[in-house]
Backbone:
């Protein structure tokens, strides 16, 4: 990742952290902490943390041209969620990218987490993708870091556009229809909530594409009220280390 991507991630983290239920911004940095352990820190100039070569994982760029939503729309959207007590908390910061071997990537992440004495989990799935989460499932409300490595051998036209991406995952108590309505209204029609996607273990999410910076997509994932709560979701995770 370069400085422009870092700066945008820090900017979005700061806006999210205006909510009392989200604390991922401190000292002008995006910080993902698992209680007393720093998993990931992104400043305007660098990325640090326990994960090796994280910057290089996003080297392959999207074909989309740079474009980003008006962040005032995001501010108004978050204010509405907070005011009406729809914003429940922050789930994870996720990274989705292509690799030569997802299984080798899994082993590398296991090594990284083992050295840092952090757990790595996998959510069971009926699809080939690996859903990997670093952190501690028993330490709520601390967020986790998600990794979704996609095999480079997969032939899909859309992969050249929606990968790589980084997403901010937040929990809400809203139904999918209400999320779609609010996104269309408060983003002034400039953004839409993608149709609700059912992920493994009862995770229902709607994704809002915030934009792309230097070939990296940045998304806001909104868990709907159909999603199992954070405690239930984390009990479904299989501990790898």
Residues:
């Amino acid at each position: 990742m370069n400085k422009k991507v870092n700066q945008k991630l820090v900017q979005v983290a700061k806006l999210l952290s205006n909510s009392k239920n989200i604390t991922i911004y401190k000292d002008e940095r995006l910080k993902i902490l698992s209680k007393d352990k720093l998993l990931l820190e992104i400043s305007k100039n660098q990325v640090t943390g326990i994960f090796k070569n994280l910057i290089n994982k996003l080297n392959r760029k999207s074909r989309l041209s740079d474009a980003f939503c008006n962040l005032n729309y995001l501010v108004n959207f978050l204010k509405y969620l907070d005011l009406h007590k729809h914003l429940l908390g922050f789930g994870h910061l996720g990274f989705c990218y292509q690799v030569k071997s997802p299984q080798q990537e899994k082993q590398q992440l296991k090594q990284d987490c083992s050295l840092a004495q952090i757990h790595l989990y996998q959510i069971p799935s009926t699809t080939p993708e690996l859903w990997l989460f670093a952190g501690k499932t028993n330490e709520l409300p601390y967020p986790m870091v998600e990794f979704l490595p996609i095999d480079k051998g997969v032939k899909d036209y859309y992969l050249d556009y929606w990968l790589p991406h980084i997403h901010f995952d937040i929990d809400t108590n809203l139904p999918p229809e209400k999320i779609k309505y609010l996104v269309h209204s408060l983003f002034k029609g400039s953004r839409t909530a993608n149709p609700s996607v059912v992920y493994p273990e009862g995770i229902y999410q709607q994704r809002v594409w915030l934009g792309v910076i230097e070939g990296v997509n940045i998304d806001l994932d909104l868990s709907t009220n159909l999603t199992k709560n954070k405690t239930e979701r984390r009990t479904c995770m299989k501990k790898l280390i």
